[in-house]
Every structure is written in structure tokens, then in C-alpha cells.
Amino acid sequence: MSTAQTGTDERHPLFMPLILIGGLIFGFGLGYSHMARPEVVLDFLQFEDFGLLFVMFGGAMVTGLAYVVVPQLFDRAPLTGDSFGRRLKRFDRNVLIGGGIFGVGWGLSGICPGAGYASLGVGNLPILWAIGGMFIGAYAQGVWRSQASTTDATPTSAD
């Protein structure tokens, strides 16, 4: 995909700094709400503490509101110049397996990738094991996918 197709030529100079600021605000929010603590997440998964439900609901409300309001205010995304539109991905075997693996990892460790980095920020150094596992899993998936794509692209003989 060329840069003309992705809209990177039209990105505002503040695009990357605002991404950094947004990530810092997100991480601070996770730390402040104690959602960067695996114990809190595991308590939610064991139906003992429903605070995470309220945090997720608040995030879903803000996101849903933004998806409705922002396209009505702007013709194109202000910082990237991309047009607004839905990007749909088919529900297929890879989505089901990937979601299952993510869910099992989340349930075992009590942490997801974003909260894992925020957990480092609040001093939870043992979380490095979970982050290392995320990197190993992502690397293994990339190797598997690249091998699958080269196998699919290999021409077969017409014997």
C-alpha cells in the first residue's frame, strides 16, 4: 500500500505527538483506575469486583459517541486526512482462534497489552514475564503467518 493510499502524505505535523499524549493519558487512566493491576482484572473475571465493567462501559460510551459525532462535524479525519468509513473484517477461523488465545492469555495473566505497559509504569516489574510472553506470541504468529503465506504462494506443478 503506497503512502498516497494510506493518507500519510496529508498527516498533520502534530499527529505523532498527539498519539503519544493520548497513550500517556490512556496509561495514566489505567493506572489511576487500578486497571493496570492484574489482581483487579482477575477479581473481575472471578465475579468478585465489577469495577472493570464500569471502566469498559465508560470507554465504550466515549468511543461510541465519537464514532457518531466526529464524522458529522468533519468530512475527513483532522490529523490524517483519511475519509471516515467502516473497516469490516470477516469473522473467520483466524479471528476466532486469535480471540480465544487473547482471552486465555488475559484470563491467566490478568493483563492485556495496553494495561501491561501501564502496569510497568506503576512499578509492577513481574509483569515483564507477561509482556515477554506477548512478544513471543506475536513473533510466533508472525513467523507462522509468513510461512503460511509463502506456502500459499508456492507454485504447484501440473503433473
Topology overview:
Layout: H1 3-6, H2 15-32, H3 38-45, H4 51-73, H5 93-109, H6 113-121, H7 128-153
Helix pairs in contact: 2-6, 6-7
Structure overview:
The protein has helices at residues 3-6, 15-32, 38-45, 51-73, 93-109, 113-121, 128-153. It has 159 residues and is an all-alpha fold. It has one domain (3-153). Helix 2 (15-32) packs across helix 6 (113-121) and helix 6 runs antiparallel to helix 7 (128-153). The longest helix has 26 residues, at 128-153. It is globular, with a radius of gyration of 20 Å. The protein starts with a helix and ends in a 6-residue tail after the last helix. The model is unreliable at 1-7 (pLDDT under 50).
Which properties best describe this structure?
66% helix, mainly alpha, disordered N terminus, 159 residues, 7 helices
